[in-house]
Amino acid sequence: MQNITTTLKKLFYLWRRSQVPLKQPIKISRIDNLIIFLVCILISIISSYKLLLISPLNVADIFSWLLTFTEILISSGILILVSKKENPTISSRQIFLIITLLLGVQATKLVLASTISPLSIIIPPALIISQGMGSITALTWVSIASFSWPDPAVAINNNLFFILLVCSSVVSLLGGRIRSRAQLLQLSIFVPIGSFLSQWILIGKDKITLTNNQDFVLANRDIFSDSLLLAIVMLFTILFIPIFESIFGLLTKARLLELADKEKPLIRRLSLEAPGTFEHTLLICGLAEEATRMIGGDIDLVKTGALYHDVGKLHAPNWFIENQDGLINPHDELDDPIKSAEVLQAHVDEGLKFARKNRLPKLISNFIPEHQGTLKMGYFFQKAKEKNLDINEYYFRYKGPIPQSKETAILMLADGCEAALRAMNINASDNEALGTISNIIYSREKDGQLDDSNLSKGEIFLIKRAFLNVWKRIRHRRIQYPTSKNNTFS
Ligand SMILES: [Fe+2]
Ligand SMILES: [Fe+2]
Fold first, then answer.
1. Is the peptide bond before 275 cis (omega within 30 degrees of 0)?
2. Contact residues for 267 (Cβ-Cβ < 8 A; gap 6+)
3. 282 alpha carbon to ligand 2 midpoint, in Å?
């Protein structure tokens, strides 16, 4: 009996260790919450008020109105919860976007339900949401928008409703994965063609009017004009996606890949003015990418974030070990550990200035301060102690914040391991490399740097294995840093 209890306790302990620690939910101000709630009420009113217009009104009608009203209100709440779950860093602006699009659909239904097909109204917003906030949020939005579409006064064809659900689900699923504007363009051509063919098969050939001279676009229940309108609205949506990106701070895959282009001026400058930092950045990209793939995180985000994490070093490239030729070290000439620590902190502050100037999205600029977290600049702190300076450790720590996401935490760990892995002997065994990686990661963990990152113990284990795999791949083209003693400020 005691054995069973011990085993159960052990299992419970292991299960708890493998769980992701709870993270504080994002804070949305009271006024934003109130506005969001009011918009949800408005959506519910628009979708249900027609049920009260029936005369004579009886109790059953009022009950049915109340039911529809509550249904839509609860659905809107679920939509917000799902979007928060899929995007833990979602801002109130982005929540406004989701519910405003839902409100837009309801308002359009009110005005145009009898003349326009729901396809052109529901599919394009689904594309914006899936691109900016992911497929699950888009699918939830689509289901609420579609089920609240049927207007009591306008009969909707069941087949059309089915086609609407299929097409919008396809757009939601593919939209979240699409990695270039060209693929978006293909989607905006193939979805209308698909909807045209399926309507032709399921609804009937008699509804097609290929040569409709009048009311070409808004022709009543005309399959061809409906599909053409859908294609036009989708093309316009693609044109406007960059505007949505900047207004609502959306970070689409296409935008991420554009930013990851090494010909971008800031990255070009890094490669020319700070070649050592550029090399360091490339290796970190490899380490972080592999680790993020292992834990199922956002690879494109981490790759792009890694590319920009040290751009702040452009303010004084030769003050960083990887850009020195091994002969002159300005820190030795300065001989002031406090001033040296200020130069190191400046690479974060200047990096944030570069990010603002180059209009980098918030999710990318977060990598700049979070990759250093509140780490101690051990080398200079030690120097200060050697000089018997009575100084608080606080002045030798980066200002933070500590990593707030799995991706920025992975970058911090990759940043810490990169110099050590480069400097490692070519004949070192896998166990030695793993030992070095584990020590560095453990020191970050013990220092509390991973507390807000949501990384579980299991994920940290996978990250270690990923770093080891990358080291095994690159050890044959290892480049030794001038000294390993100075790794502390790389
Ligand atoms: Fe850095
Ligand atoms: Fe770095």
1. no
2. 261, 278, 307, 308, 311
3. 10
The pair of three-digit structure tokens given for residue 400, joined into one six-digit string: 């933070």
Position 267: which residue type? I
Calculate how far, in angstroms, residue 270's C-alpha sits from the geometric centre of ligand 1. 13
User: Ligand 2: distance of its center to the CA of 204 in Å?
Assistant: 62
Is the alpha carbon torsion for 464, 465, 468, 470 positive or negative?
negative
Residue 205 has what pLDDT?
Answer: 56
Dist. CA 102 → ligand 1 center (Å): 42
Backbone angles phi, psi at 387, to 5 degrees: -85, 5
Amino acid (1-letter code) at residue 289: E
Distance 310 CA to ligand 1 centre (A): 5
Averaged pLDDT, groups of 10, the chain, 490 residues long:
80 64 63 92 87 78 88 93 86 91 88 79 92 92 86 69 90 88 89 88 61 44 80 91 86 88 92 92 94 92 94 91 80 84 92 92 92 90 78 85 92 92 82 92 92 90 94 69 51
What is the DSSP secondary-structure string of 101-135?
A: HHHHHHHHHHHHTTTS-HHHHHHHHHHHHHHHH-H
Give the ligand whose atoms come closest to the C-alpha of residue 278: 2
